[in-house]
Amino acid sequence: MRTLTLLRPVALLHFLMMIVLLGGCSARGLVKAGLDVDKADAPQMLMVATPDFVIQEVDVGRNSERVVKWEQQAGKAFEDAVLRLSDKGKKFAVVSPSVLTEEETQVLVQHRALFATMAPQLLQIKEGAVEVWADEKRKFAYTLGPGLGFLKTKYNVDALVVVIGKDTVRSGARIALDIINSVLPGAVSGEASHAYLISAIVDTGSGDILLFDYDAAKRRQLSNQSDVSSMADEVMTDYRRMLKKGAWF
User: How many other CB atoms are found less than 10 A from the CB of residue 146?
Assistant: First the structure.
């Protein structure tokens, strides 16, 4: 089992932009090696770690500012999307992180941060950005470590859903100015950025990443709760397929 060692200190969003330019999401995410989708049972209890979204708004002067309200709304939209999936199929349940102590909550925050440092390399593995990592995709086996074991022993949570994301949203005035600039000779107009949502389903007993996927969309915004819900469906595709089969691994 491997933890991630980044080849160089390159920013997460730089990798994300590279991958989007290379062609966007592939058909399915990464699945832990050796897991049989037809034999093992699906986890009955999930918990969604509080999502970590960074949403910035760009104004007319190209100044950017984080909008905490949008970040909180996006996090709730993702959590609600998982709850709807649970209610729809009745094949699993969701345990709220509100049951955790402050110390336990910080453990989840630390593991979410660890996942964020792993995400760039996982994205490259998923998209085949580096030829020598083709074998890594076939033998996908990465872990966040055993620190989540208390979720299993104390709260009976089988798997933790971890999600991070980023988006830069243009203000209404910025959009209007960009439209005007787009038809003026020599004027510079901005374009809408891609919204990124990256997620993993992690076994609480071992810390192993069972599923990894992401969605990047230029026509969606994390400030739009409906868009977040749609992106949540995308990154949960493999899990939904497994539920439909009535099996986990």
Answer: 12
